[in-house]
Design goal:
about 40 residues, mainly alpha, transmembrane, transmembrane helix, membrane
């Protein structure tokens, strides 16, 4: 039971790290898009 919980916790930690990376990339892409729109105008 403890091993199963540890595995879930490790997976959750990995998932949170992956989501934070994805969020950083997404916000960076959005800022690039906004910058591109401003430049085109």
């Amino acid at each position: 039971m403890f091993y199963h919980t540890a595995k879930i916790r490790r997976f959750a930690k990995l998932f949170v790290e992956y989501m934070s990376y994805f969020y950083c990339f997404y916000s960076f892409f959005q800022s690039l898009q906004i910058y591109g729109i401003q430049v085109s105008n």
